[in-house]
Specification:
With 450 residues, the protein is an all-alpha fold. It has helices spanning 3-20, 22-25, 29-44, 60-94, 99-105, 110-127, 130-144, 148-167, 174-182, 187-210, 228-231, 234-258, 262-282, 300-305, 309-327, 330-341, 346-356, 362-372, 386-397, 407-416, 420-426, 428-448.
């Protein structure tokens, strides 16, 4: 490792530590992430020719710009997906669309609610995706749990259940989608062999967390400005719900048909929902407009103004800083080192990759693995082989061990203001126990069933 490479890694590690102790420094994590991004790439520019072929002389600016713009484009697809999904879910929620889901989950017993949240999150994350599901469940939790201390426990379970549910579904997690599109796993293969380990990785943490919840829930006061029932008719609210939730379900179908990135499907759904709600609201009496005459507060134009830009910028900084590590070859070297160190033991290699995916983004880790390890005709590296299926499980479920280890965790962290330190102290070990249990169950499956 060269001095320059070591310097870039050091900057990333220092930035990561600053994010970890945000509760002590009182410096917003988004600011640190953006500085990581800028400093890593600034150091990279000291000698880009070491990492990019052709980056010499006058060709340096163009060569580096192409690399950064490629990574920025990939990052932007995640950010636009996030913003679109958050806006759609917020609109459906504000107009009473999730009331029936909330009514299904509603119970006075804390433990009963925990299990209902766990099962609903797990199922939805496999059908939709873990990111969108996390947003939906946090919106519902806010209407069911008044106590902040209790709610963040449920929110932590949402992260675990969402990542576990997404791991066994070919459309539930971005890394599983990558492996599925690459052809190293099949939809039926990953569902058949990874579903039970995923269930175990959710059930065990849920049971442990349930031990800390006792008694009944306090009543949640209805929001004073929640007048959606008076503004829109029952038919209009149902239309918004089916367009919103049905649209989210349609996104992976749209992707499979058009082969366009998922964010395009999200923007399609947002555009349709935006148009329909504008038609609904323009027919309302004029006295239902706000003081500026700009329409109701529940229109999408108002939802967009409430997007948490701090979370968006944090995502941008983290993903672009990790992209720099990918460009300088650190992630690929790490994967190769793991393979040598553990003598090709795929349970250990993928297990370590899963732990690493809670520290750095799992997308470049999985991308690096797909580039490092060729698909073989038979054995563990064959299509639906042990290595690829374990990689799908470990990269998805492993992200639950740290709150910034997955898109679901980052979103919940922003929505509920959960600190990195609290999650690491209270939840990390619980998620790790479930993670290991799932790997053991998969080993038992391969030994005795498949």
């Amino acid at each position: 490792m060269t001095t320059l490479t070591l310097s870039i890694v050091t900057v990333f590690v220092i930035g990561y530590l600053c994010i970890a102790v945000e509760s002590l420094t009182k410096i917003n994590k988004a600011a640190i992430a953006l500085l990581m991004f800028v400093f890593c790439w600034t150091l990279f520019m000291l000698d880009p020719g070491s990492y990019i072929a052709g980056a010499v002389g006058d060709a340096i600016p163009l060569a580096v710009s192409e690399v950064i713009e490629k990574h920025l484009g990939s990052t932007a697809t995640t950010l636009f997906f996030l913003m679109g999904a958050m806006t759609i879910v917020e609109l459906v929620d504000q107009n009473g669309g999730f009331n029936f889901v909330r009514d299904m989950l509603k119970t006075r017993t804390k433990k009963a609610l925990l299990w209902r949240i766990a099962v609903m999150t797990f199922v939805l994350s496999a059908i939709l995706d873990n990111l969108t599901t996390s947003i939906v469940m946090i919106m519902i939790l806010r209407k069911l749990v008044a106590d902040k201390k209790d709610r963040i426990i449920y929110a932590a379970l949402v992260i675990i259940a969402a990542n576990s549910g997404g791991a066994f579904s070919p459309i539930g997690d971005v890394t599983t989608i990558m492996l599925w599109n690459k052809g190293v796993i099949t939809a039926m293969g990953v569902i058949t062999e990874i579903m039970i380990p995923s269930v175990v990785s959710m059930v065990i943490p849920a049971y442990i967390l349930s031990l800390s919840l006792k008694g009944d829930l306090a009543e949640v006061e209805e929001e004073a400005d929640d007048t959606s029932d008076d503004i829109l008719s029952a038919g209009q609210r149902k239309a918004i719900f089916f367009l919103g939730v049905g649209g989210l379900i349609f996104v992976p179908i749209f992707k499979s048909i058009t082969h366009l990135p998922p964010f395009v499907g999200i923007l399609l759904v947002l555009g349709v929902l935006w148009t329909v709600t504008e038609i609904f609201y323009r027919s309302l009496p004029h006295d239902n407009e706000d003081e500026n005459g700009n329409g109701m507060q529940k229109r999408i134009t108002k939802m967009l103004a409430r997007i948490d830009m701090g979370t968006i910028l944090f995502f941008l900084g983290i993903l672009m800083a990790v992209a720099c590590l990918e460009t300088i070859g650190v992630l690929e070297s790490l994967g190769e080192g793991l393979n040598v160190a553990f003598n090709g033991n795929h349970y250990l290699v993928t297990g370590i990759i899963g732990v690493l995916s809670s520290i750095v983004d799992n997308v470049p880790l999985v991308a690096g693995c797909m580039g490092m390890y060729p698909v073989e005709a038979t054995g563990d590296m064959a299509v639906d082989g042990v290595f690829w299926q374990l990689l799908a499980y470990c990269a998805g479920v492993g992200g639950s061990m740290l709150i910034i280890g997955s898109a679901a965790g980052v979103v919940v962290m922003g929505l509920e203001k959960i600190t990195f330190g609290w999650y690491m102290k209270k939840i990390t070990w619980i998620a790790f126990v479930g993670y290991l249990a799932g790997i053991i169950v998969y080993w038992v499956e391969k030994m005795f069933l498949f």
